[in-house]
């Protein structure tokens, strides 16, 4: 087990009726910027619950934060936050709204050009406006981590930053807010949290039993409850389990003491930036191909995965690994996310642009061994045509 430092300051309020807790969290004299996306929260009653909890506060609204939040949109929110002297940000929505709000929180108190935040991967961030969240789409874990992914639409650059200053102070997770998710987003949430888990699990063994067994429990839960949520959208227990899974999958717990991969995410971000696939759609394509390409290096963990997650005990090692990869692909497809580039009209001709973006972004040594260069990334994508 490797050394690690673990710290997570976000307070979670989980369950029915918890949106009312906003007023216990945000100081009464705060000037609150309420940030949200394209309007789903107005249709499903979440906006009304939030506004009820915000009675008595001075509130400024900023809406229209799009999926894969655009820098061009977020700078408008930063200008508004500065003009209105906002002292608290409340993000209500999915990962895009929360990520965008992290950028707004940091950018609103940063003196220079806010794109510096991305270009320094967050190193230039010395402060941020405090942030609270009401999560409506369990997927990214952004509600309990310090990462954010922002897209500069004009150049198709999708890049991330991290800063302890943008860790949400609190996040409210009411599974009922997820009842209105379209099937596409249920699928995306399940696949994203699944892939967060395996990016921190399917590497090489270091005898770290706690994160390994936690990862296995999260994977089994997604396999069980993902299909239930698709079939029975108002099944509270399934929604609740999926919501806590997605938070746990990327709040820092799973990486304690283990190596991590993240090649799939980095390649996937380029696919989204260039070709506008949803984040989880890219992951379902890339991760099976990474495993096929890295089968030897990941052999022991793939075998552990085959045995403990899919109960595959028969056949040769090769057969068990291949079957585990196949079962993973079948699960993604069952949820609604194809595992081939061709499903989105993409082919071999579209791969060089991904490699060029990886080079441009300095993402030239990916994976737990740092040995996936843009050349290997191209080979990986060829396995997913
Ligand atoms: O904009 P609105 O109208 O709210 O609609 C959204 C959006 O169209 C809709 N939606 C959300 N909650 C809903 C709902 N529709 C009905 N009912 C609800 N309860 O869903 C659509 C997609 O939302 P989005 O926030 O884009 O999805 P997601 O949560 O999957 O976030 C994806 C973004 O997060 C980044 C991704 O790269 C992508 O940009 N990630 C952030 C991470 C992090 N901060 O740690 C890690 C992840 O790996 C990921 O990279
Ligand atoms: Zn992800």
Automatic annotation (TrEMBL):
UniProt GO MF annotations: alcohol dehydrogenase (NADP+) activity; butanol dehydrogenase (NAD+) activity; metal ion binding; methylglyoxal reductase (NADPH) (acetol producing) activity
Q: Which InterPro entries match?
A: ADH_Fe/GldA, ADH_Fe_C, ADH_Fe_CS, BDH-like
**Which UniProt keyword terms apply here?**
Oxidoreductase
Domain (Fe-containing alcohol dehydrogenase-like C-terminal): residue spans on this chain? 187-357
What cofactor does this chain's UniProt record say it requires?
A: Fe cation
Q: Give an example GO cellular component term for this record.
A: cytosol
Pfam families per record = ADH_Fe_C (PF25137), Fe-ADH (PF00465)
Q: Which SUPFAM superfamilies does this chain map to?
A: Dehydroquinate synthase-like (SSF56796)
The Alcohol dehydrogenase iron-type/glycerol dehydrogenase GldA domain covers 9-175
**Family assignment?**
Belongs to the iron-containing alcohol dehydrogenase family.
| Name the UniProt record assigns to this protein | Alcohol dehydrogenase, NAD(P)-dependent, iron-containing
Organism placement in taxonomy: Bacteria, Pseudomonadati, Pseudomonadota, Gammaproteobacteria, Alteromonadales
